[in-house]
Amino acid sequence: MTGTRPADGPVHGTWEPEPASRWEDAFLSGNGHHGALVYGDPNADRVVVTHHTLVRPDGDDEYRRPPLLAAALPALQDRLLAGETAAAEDFTDGRPLRWVRPFHPAFRLRLNRPPGDARAAYRRCVDFTTGETTATHSTWTSRVFVSRADDVIVQRVTAPHLTLDLSLDPRLPGAPAGLAVGQGAVLTPEGALLSLRVRYPGSDLAYTGVTLVAVTGGATRLVPPGVLVEDATEVLLLTRVRRHTGELDVVAEGRALRDLPDAASYDGLLGRHLALHRTAYDRVTLDLGADPAERALPGSALLERPGGAALLERLFAAGRYHLLSASGLFPPRLTGLWTGDWNTAWSGAFTTNANLNLQTASAAAAALPEVTEAHAALVHHQLPDWRDNARAIFGTRGVVAPSHTDGESGHTYHFSREYPLHLWTAGADWLLKPLVDHDETRGARDPRTAAALAEAALFYEDFLTRTDGDGQVVVVPSYSPENRPANASWGSVDAAMDLSAARHALLTAADHHPEHADRWRALADRLPPHRINSDGALAEWARPGLEDSYDHRHLSHLYGVWPLDEINPYDTPRLAEAARRALELRGTENDSAHGHLHHALVAARLRDAGRVAHALGRVLDGDYFHPSLMSAHYPHRDVYNADAAHTLPAVLIEMLVQSTPGRLVLLPALPASCPRGELRGVRTRFGAELDLTWTPDGTARALLRPGRTVRVELRTSSGAEPLDLVAGEDRAVSVTSTSAAAR
């Protein structure tokens, strides 16, 4: 089977015995800029082309700014502190809810040919190690990948006496009326150059797709809107998309494609791509000792066996592959980098109050700095807009991140009475946390991250000015995405997430800026502690009198457990037990996939293997995955969404290995369904690479390859002990169910 390495190990790819009939089932390739959804139909193949920059303008720019509310903030704070629980409902400038600009596909590349032998064997597959999708039927073969080296979609079709009708088709589901479409096709010495320009209604923005067609053998002639290739042996297609204003020079774009190194050689282009893609993908592998017969099954058949180790192996591999493929210019959207419909759910946005953060959760440990670098690019590009948010809404210095962004604007304008997301102040900390983890993993600090942390601290310096009777500062207004107290409105006081984020932002900024450390640490110390409610659970609002609403998909109040290290079983056992109780009481509301996997991540940090297994089971048993192994937001494959696909690798790593700059936790939450296995290549936040093996008899062995000299605390089921690591010297650690001994 494609992508299997070694022959008896986990499968690094997936396959199906039939072409895709829906775009949701198409196999995926991408380089973090361009994306391709490949159907693999031998007679009427379709490749849907996407690009991260393609968001639809709507002419509503006056609403794409944060509301000017700073002057009214003190009065709102007075009312909330006086006990007016609904005071924040009218804290708005009166605008209606505005979604961010929606992500959309570019076009379909159509490849029609006369029907072949319907009885011939068919197979389509995607190789995660190479990023290639391949379809074969009789003597016909199609291979597609998106080059990470040359930023181009590459497709090669081969067959004896090959006849193909080629065109670029803009007619995709949900395409709005009023699109101005222009198409072109010219013959060239190597074959043809196809172009498609689409201008948005009421805008000077447009995008243009260009495909260079190189034909071996046979003849090529114009058949508008494309070309007809007859009696060829091979057709090589190179495709790019550009978003632009004015007109794009199609001839120059074609020349740029023609001038690529190895432009006439599929294998040459693939080799340049593999130097980047395979190097990244191969860094981490998970082997759960699955049955070889199950490993050989197509993905659709494997999904019908949700309890098997082979499915977890393949979803881990697919999750890392899709996450890498979706990350480059930006990190992944709600749909990753892919959609076949202009009506993308929730605008296909970057949603930063849970979804983006969950999707990228494995980046540091799973050795995908490419993902973190894409995440950093989004953050640093939008910092000026974050400053505007802080000034306009709160009248402060520093930065406030939006909960939704289309990638172009970082302004806060998506909010309403039921979702007062403009009141949420924890976003900057959550978005900066992965950048801090990345720096800890590699052992070097990015000055851009340090500067952004300082701006987060400056916001809290200016914002945290109100105090209670005990002299503690109060976070007011405060919002816990996307929930509300049972006895109050959405905008409230002292949400647990806001407290954790403020404390973490101030302390982390202090660690990076010694010249301000005393001031910022003193402010962090004045924040109120978390509250344990009458049910023994960590309260979602620390303010006394605010009652919890348990049946909700978000776990915002457990931010201190994951992704932070503020609450854990080792340093804060009482709070950890309260967090465990809060997790136990939490409902699932509408069965959103992100809620289940967020639950699993928190449970893993709390060493609750049973809850990890239960949350994973809800997703694996709920029919959340398409045959492409991309996921859905709801059960029964309802609403294409990358949350589950991209988050699952993080869950599997967290149940096996956890690290902080001063601690290593081995097998904290291993489910009974994974009695044996090997995880290779994970990175720790104290600078060591780690391989872990474990067996059904309760023994485990970790091999650490430290990049710096450090002493950490080793935590296992048997307790704690110091572990000294020396840069450049491998260290083996053996663990049993009753003791942990370093040797």
TrEMBL record:
Residues 15-241 form the Glycosyl hydrolase family 95 N-terminal domain. GO terms for biological process: carbohydrate metabolic process. Residues 265-656 form the Glycosyl hydrolase family 95 catalytic domain. InterPro entries: 6-hairpin_glycosidase_sf, 6hp_glycosidase-like_sf, AFCA-like_C, Alpha-L-fucosidase, GH95_cat, GH95_N_dom. Coiled coil: none annotated. PANTHER family: ALPHA-L-FUCOSIDASE 2. This is Uncharacterized protein. Pfam families: Glyco_hyd_65N_2, Glyco_hydro_95_C, Glyco_hydro_95_cat. It comes from the Bacteria. The lineage of its organism: Bacteria, Bacillati, Actinomycetota, Actinomycetes, Kitasatosporales. Residues 658-722 form the Alpha fucosidase A-like C-terminal domain. One of its GO terms (molecular function) is alpha-L-fucosidase activity.
